[in-house]
Structures are given as C-alpha cells and as structure tokens.
Amino acid sequence: MPCRASWISAYSRTARRCAASNTARGAAFDEEAGRRGLAEALRFLDRTARLGDPLVTGVLLPCRIETLLPELLGDVARAARERGALVRLHALQGMSERDYIQRAYGRTPLQLIADSGLLSDRLIVTHGVVLDVHPEVLGRDTGDVSVLADAGVSIVHCPLTNARYAHNLHTFAGYRARGVNLCLGTDSFPPDLIRGIDVGTQVAKLQAGDLGQGHLTGYFDALWTGGATALHRPDLGRLAAGATADLSACALDDFRTGVTEDPLRTLVLNGTARDAVLTMVAGRVVMRDGSIPGVDLTELRRTGRQLFDMMRAAYPERDHRRRTVGELFPPVFPRS
Questions:
Q1: SS3 of residue 112 by DSSP
Q2: How far apart are CA 97 and CA 336, in angstroms?
Q3: pLDDT at residue 18, rounded to an integer
Q4: 56-84: per-residue pLDDT in tens?
Q5: How many angstroms separate the CA atoms of 71 and 77, rounded?
Q6: How far apart, in whole angstroms, are the C-alpha atoms of residue 134 and residue 167?
Q7: Which residues fall within 8 angstroms of residue 255, CB to CB, at 6 or more apart?
C-alpha cells in the first residue's frame, strides 16, 4: 500500500467558521490572511522542488471549502495548473456546508468547485459525500458523481469519520460503478485504515440490505491503487517489478485475533492497524514491531496530551453559547 507520508504543504484559508446565529453557521473572513496563506504555500512548493528529494512532494492544501472565497479557489486552481501540483480540498462534506455555500454564492459546492477551475485529475476531495445522490439532497442521480468521474477527481473516503457524523457515501459501490477513483483516509483519530475498512464494509451491507455487498475487494483497491492513482504515482500501491518498495506487513498470530480464514478478511474482521509489525519506505525499514528508530513515542504522547489539554481548555472561548469545558466534554456516565 502507498504508505509514505511525504505530500505536505502550508494551509490556506480566508475565513474561520463561526456561529452566525443560534441556528446557522457562518464564517469570519480575512481576505489578506488567505492571500498570505497561498503565498506561503507557493513558497513551500518552490522549496520542496529545490530539495529534489523523491520522498518529499509539495502540494496545495486549501482548507474546507466554506472557509475559502471563490477568488482564492480560483487562485489555487491557477497555481495548480501552472505548477502541475496536486490540490487536496475538504468539500462536499455535510449539509451545513452545502446550505452555507448556496446562501452565500447561489451555487452548490460542486458548482463552485467547477467554476473555480479546480475540476481535474489533480484535485483530491476529502469526503465527497453530499451530492445529488445523497438522500438529504435529492436521493437520485442527476449527474454530480459523473462530473467528478469525468474530470478525473479522486475522492478520499473516510468511512470511520463519515459513520460518526452519519454522512455516508451513497454509495461506495455506486461511485465506483460511475468511474470515480476512491481512496481511503482517516480524517480523525484513530489513524486506522483497517478499522475504517471494517466500518465501511458494514455500512455498505446496511445500505444494500445484503450481506454480500460489503465490497471488501473494492475497499482494498481503494487503499492500495486508489491512493496511488490520486497521487499520480503508479509505482505505489502494488507489488510488481519496477514498483517502489513501500509496504506494510501485519501479524495475525495474536491469540485474540482468532483463527485465520482469509488473511485480509481476518485482518478486517478481527484486527486493527495496531497489528502492523513492519513498514518499509523505498525499501528501508522505518517501523518494526511497533518501534520507530529515532522517535520517542512516549515523549510524543506526552506532548500530544499537553496540546490537547490546551485546545480543550480554549473551547469555551470559541463556543457561541459559552458553555464550560465540562458541558462541552461531558463524561459518558455522570461522575458523583
């Protein structure tokens, strides 16, 4: 599977999401901040190009579509064309995003993307859920999915996050049948694609009302070749002569995993990404038996805990109802 984390960039956006009222979301815009963010991203692209390092690739990472003015989207599209850069955009994610874009610009998010000039095989859309086929939109196909497929856009499907927010693809099989390149993402913790595949296959069965419609093969295709296609890297995602030796290996010998029937089916049904015991990048071992040479995981966890505590403590400042930390993060069971 493509497992190298080397596509990086600076973020750019022109707004921060906020509450426009007690019931509607809005955005507080700062156009100059958006221009500065794009300029920084372009400087970063130039810097990575000068490195000439095959393990580091610069891309453009605009934020969520509702935080970007149409002018900035157009600037990103032009920069991507001029530099042949990939663009990753969070979009088509939820109904609140769709409602906001329609109120603000009189267009759907997909129409805004198309009008900006972003529709191409360089565009990678995280989520891509809320289209005409979604039951909360029209519940029928009027061509939205085919627009993405015809342009060569890749969709980063995040089954675990989608299930948590009850916004699932309608449907994984339907997108594939229309020719959309699907790859997999996590978008949240845990960064566990095996759990994501498990959730995705179960949701697919529920949607179809058929236990045979989990599409496990399709999910592994999305994990391997789908990701490589999105990144324009045919040397990734496959074991073949001339392919880059990027791979991960998982162990199935833990007693708690049970017996092995089919290795991939057993991994998805009974395992998690924590069963990974080996990761190689370009033929070099970067993780073995849970250990990453030169990385202090205990210290990283401690730092992560500190940052999370700071973020959580600041939530009441950003909450339009000024709720306390205890109200915003209630325990599962009340504490006496």
A1: helix
A2: 39
A3: 54
A4: 899 999 989 999 999 999 999 999 999 99
A5: 10
A6: 9
A7: none
